[in-house]
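JOB MANIFEST
job_type = single_chain_structure
chain_count = 1
residues = 310
[input]
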Amino acid sequence: MSDRTEWHKLLGLVLSPLFEQLGYETRLEVDLSLKSHFIDIVVIRRVEVKDFNQVIDRVYWEAFDDLNEHNLISFKSYSESFGSFEAEELLGHLINYCKQYDVSRKDVNLYAIVHHYPEQFLKPFIKTGFYKKIKGEEITDLDLEGFKRIRFIKTRTTNNPVLGLFSGDPVRIKKSYEFLKAEGNLISEVSSYLKKIGKYIGEVIEMYTKEDFFKEFPPDESPFVFPWEEEYHNKEIEAIKQRVEQEKQRAEQEKHRAEQEKQRAEQERQSIEQERQSIEQERQRAERIEQEKRKAEELLNEYRRRYGEL
């Protein structure tokens, strides 16, 4: 299985529990021709759910608020783009699907889940009535007259926690996982695919490094989501241990140097003290000589008073 096929199938597997709660069956890589012409995901209504809010939070289904009886979804991952050819291909899927399964065109909706916003493709339509922003650049509709409308959902900016796992943005991925874990509704169904999603993430992380990721989300006591989380965490622990050991060695070296400095200082102090004592002895000897000199002068003066000058 190619990487492209793997990621497209993986998205369908992760979305399947969501659509199931909305009353829809999900089919993956449906062959629409005799020459293996596959559509990534087909979502078919099986149960009538009148109010999606009654079964799951709006953030999950906001991008799919207009689900039809049949829904064809094309997924373009980080390495793919959506342009005129892809639009024609999706419309071709629509025709083939309607013919093969005897479905009315009005009962089918088209969706393009894209990693990269198809700016070049949509640019000519932005200032026309054919282009409509449903939610910023996260959700947009292209409804050309005479053609089936295509809804674009951009994973890089989506708040949908399931689609957010395919955003390629580590911060958004982590937040999506944390939301799924806290909300608890789909985490048991999605968790078995997290390791594969981790591989997908590993391929798209380029400018945003693992170090940057853990600055935003430092490891805690919760289970690791992605394989490289535990690897990074263990490496960080080992690096911390090495830094602690290095700091310990540096501290010992500093202590040893401080002890040597202390000994040198003590030697200097003793040397200074000896010098001071020597100076003091010289001063005292000089004083004694001065005293002897004064006494000699006094005796000489006394002699002169008594006997005069010789």
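[summary]
The two ends are 135 Å apart (CA to CA).
Residues 227-307 form the longest helix (81 residues).
exit_status = 0
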